[in-house]
Predict the structure.
Amino acid sequence: MSDIDVLVIGGGISGLATAWRLARRGISVEVWDREKRPGGKISSARQDGYVTERAASMVMNFRPEITHFLGESGVDIHKVRCTPTKKRYLVNAGRLGAIPNTIGAALMRAPFSRRGRARLMLEPFIPKGGHESETVSAFVRRRFGNELLEGAMDSFVAGTLASDPDHACARAVLPRLTALENRYGSIALGVIAKKLLRRRSAMPNEAFSFAGGMGTLVESLAAIPGVGFRPGRTVTKLIREQNGWRVEASSSDGDIAFSARTVVLCTPAKVAARLVGSVDADLQGMLAGIDYAPLSVVHLGFSKSDIRHPLDGAGFLAPRREGLAINGCLWPSSLFSGRAPAGRVLLSCYLGGARNPAAASWDDRRSIDAVLSSIVPLLDIRGTSETVRIDRHREALPLYHGRYLAHMRDIDRRLADHPGLHLEANYKGGVSVRDRILCAYKAADRIEADLGTSAKSTCYRLAPGDSRYSTFTGSAHAVFMDGA
C-alpha cells in the first residue's frame, strides 16, 4: 500500500501549483524540496529598503485559469497590479525609443526605414510556410523581413527568454504568432480576425506581482494545508514498484523511504535525468540533453534625482546590433509600489543568456562596470548607485532550441512506458509563471484521471486579519474567502 497518492519532487511554482490543484481534488500529496524554502528560483530579497527578484519579476496574464487559480487559492489577497503604463523602450542607434505594447501599433511606430516598413506591409500577402523546427530568425525574416528581426524580435527573444533567435524554435518560443499564421495564413490578418471575433467578456491582459515580491506567491502556496511542502529533503533514488514508486531521500533527520502511487518530477532537467537513470537510460539521456542559458541579474538602486530619464515605462530591451553588454533593463520601482524607498529607483539589468553566456560568470566588479557602461548614457545617470545586488544562475532558463518539439515528443513516448511518472518543469510548455500554472492544471487533471480518484470536498478559509489557514469540509468546491 502507498504512503501517499502523489509525491511531487521540486518545490518551485510548477510543483506547488500541481500539488495545490491535486489537494483541492482531495488527492493526498506532498512536495519535497532539497532547499529550506519553497519557490525554486523564484525568491524576493529585501536589502536597504529595496525589494529585488532573483528570477521572475511579475506575471503577465491573459488566461482566465490564472485568475481563477489566484482567487481559489487565496493568493489574490496579496496581488499588486502593475502601474498603468503603455511604454516599453527599445535601444536604437544608442538611444531609447518608446514602442507601444500592441503588436499592430508597434509595427507601425517602430523605428524602421521606409523599405523596412514597406516590407512589413507585405506580410498579409506572404504565403503560409515554415516547418516544425523553423527558427525564430527564419520565421520573422520570412514573414516580416530582416529589420523587424534585428530591430525588435531579436531583443525580445534574448532579453525575456535568454535565448538565441538563430537557434530557438519559433513554434515553441512564439506560439501565438505561429498559430496565427497557421490558422489565418497571415499574422496581421489573424490579429484583425481575433479582434473582430473577440467577445466582450474576453479576458483582458494584465501584469501584476505580489506585496513583498514574487516570493509571496510561492510562500503562500506552500503554506496552504494539503499542499504538504516538506523542505530539506534531497531525493537520491527512484525505484519502480508493483503499484507505484518507492522514493529514497536524505534529510537532516536521516534517510527517508516513501511509497507513492504517482511521482511528479518538477526539477531542472539534469536533476530529473539523474533521478530516472536507474529506471530508463534512454529517458535519462534525453533529459540530460536539454541545455540551459546562464544569466546574471544586476540590481542597482539610485536616488531618483540622479537619473534624468523619467523611467516612465517597464524598461528597455537591447538588440544585438547595438553591441551592449546587457540584454535589457527592467524598472521595477516604476511598475510596482514598495520596490524602492521614497525618492529612490530600482533598476534590474540582465547579463548573459545564450547570446553572451560568458557574461553570466563575470565577477562582481566586471558585471557592475558592464551594466553601468550600458545604462549611464541611455538613462543619463549623473550619480552613483547606493545599493547593489547580483543574482547569478548557472542554469537560468531552458533553451527551446533546434528540434525542441520533436525532442519533447520523444520524452513523452518514453514516459508512456512508466505509468505513474510525470515530468512538469519549465523545459516543457513554457518558462513563464503563467505557463507553469497552466501546465500544472493540465498535469493535475491527467494525474487525477490516472488515479481514478474523485474529488473530495475540501475547503480552505482565510480568517479575518489572519494569514494562517484553517480547513474544514462540507462543500463540493474549494472556496477561499477574505474576512468571511
About this structure: The longest helix spans residues 433-451. Confidence is low (pLDDT under 50) at residues 454-484. Residues 296 and 392 are 4 Å apart (CA to CA).
